Amino acid sequence: MQDPVFVQRAFSRIADRYVLTNHVLSMGTDILWRKKVARIVAERAPERLLDLATGSGDLAAEIAKKCPGTEIVGADFCQPMLNHARKRGLSNLIVADGLQLPFDSGVFDVVTVAFGLRNMADWPGAIKEMRRVLRPSGALIILDFSLPRGFLGPPYGVYLNHVLPRMAGVLTGQREAYDYLSKSVGAFPSGANMEALLRDCGFGDAASEPLSFGIASVYLGTLPVTDS
Predict the structure, then answer these.
(1) Contacts with 171 (C-beta within 8 Å, 6 or more apart), sequence order
(2) Of the chain's two ends, which shows fewer C-beta atoms within 10 Å, N or C?
(3) In what order do the strands lie in the sheet with 216-222?
(4) CA-CA distance, 58 to 21, in Å (whole number)?
(5) What is the pLDDT of residues 124-164, one digit of tens each?
(6) Are 78 and 8 in contact (CB under 8 A)?
């Protein structure tokens, strides 16, 4: 689990260069990952959606393009990141802790969280809180980094643990934040382990799909029609 004070300070420091750095380090692939999530959301046609850990609003903005009729609420515990989200035209934004969301129970059709759950201090606690604010039959969609298997595993490990922090340090001047990123990816549950965690937290149906040979993964947890 993560130190929320360190995470908040780290993201505040890299907020101004966060989007550019992500695009450079992923060679633009992160854009395709968010488009994938937006398509999954659009298939569900939600009336109301919470994008948790919305950060600079990249995913929320992409969802807004695909779902023009959806009310989108963006929440993050880092105000400097939300300042950038507002510049993208997102207005329904709130500073909030993912472990104590300021919403009534059962008010969202979909909750999305991209590259944010991994940074929270209590993964099961955060998932249960997301579950709380979902309506029956609602869906939780998680996008996050994972570790590829097979032949790509060793070279990617070198990139993640050695090349990425150095490149990001040059781009942002905050190498410490990306040293943390590398370590957090390795500790974060992925694949079947994340599916099991979702089921343990009350999602009756859980599925995962690796993206870009497993560098990232998207997870879908769905609540039953009658949630208890």
Answers:
(1) 17, 20, 21, 24
(2) C
(3) 93-95, 71-76, 48-52, 108-114, 134-145, 216-222, 205-211
(4) 13
(5) 999 999 999 999 999 999 999 898 888 888 887 887 777 77
(6) yes
- Domain range annotation of the chain: 4-147+190-222
Residue with tokens 């998207």: 218
Q: Domain 4-147+190-222: give its CATH superfamily.
A: Vaccinia Virus protein VP39 (3.40.50.150)
Of the candidates 109, 125, 82, which has an alpha carbon nearest to the alpha carbon of residue 227? 109
CA distance 166 to 160: 10
**CA-CA-CA-CA torsion for 110, 122, 1, 33, nearest 10 degrees?**
0
d(CA 8, CA 82): 12
Query: Is the pTM higher than 0.85?
Result: yes
Spell out where the chain has E strands: 48-52, 71-76, 93-95, 108-114, 134-145, 205-211, 216-222
Torsion of the alpha carbons at 31, 36, 37 and 42, rounded to the nearest 10: 120
Phi-psi region of 57 (alpha: psi -120 to 50; beta: other; left: phi over 0): left
The number of residues making up the chain comes to 228
